[in-house]
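User:
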Amino acid sequence: KGIPYDGGTYSSDDLRIIIIKDPLTWIKSMCKASYYVIFSNWSWKRHPLCPMNISRPMHDNYTMSFNAWHGHLFNNLLELYNVYYASWLNGNQTVGIGTVHRNQQLADLLQLNFTGTPTKKFYLGISSFLNRYIKDASFAQDMQQHQLFDILHTLFTPVKLPHIVLRFEDVLFRPIEVVDKICACVGGYRRTDKTVLPQDASKRHGKSKTREEAMHDYANRTYRYLNY
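Assistant: Predicted structure:
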């Protein structure tokens, strides 16, 4: 995740490990911490019952989870999920991610101040734009006719790099087996005397779970469907 498809230098000797999550639990994690995904309706994301009503119409055909990721608009979170991961699984075109140049183009389109590093004010400006975009049809039409809008919505051919796609759930429940298979794939082996499985939460934000909590929730079918 995070390969800058719209520019950059790559080494064909590097192996990328792509972690893919079950979409239902991935969407739940986006309710907790959405990172560079900006929503038009933050009250939906922050609601304790999120992701309930994820595809519910809000204005015209725009849904409650209408969002922008690196300047590209998606009508719901599942659309973003499909576009991103399809590029790795099927070699389809994908969204270019936020290099400084791309963020500058987005700032120019939205008439936002940008000094090279995205700030909270910058992201609030994007959220305000999204709100106006879905509520003001004439404004949306003007934006769609802008040259920078077309540039930001360009789909890129993914860089062809050696990669392995792993299910998050396999890494969580069968970490030793997964690591052994990766090692075998690249002609190596796992050092059995230094196999470490961290038990604490991996992040300090987004109400991150410990390994034990994650195993409990991801083994619970009710948790997977809760609030949908």
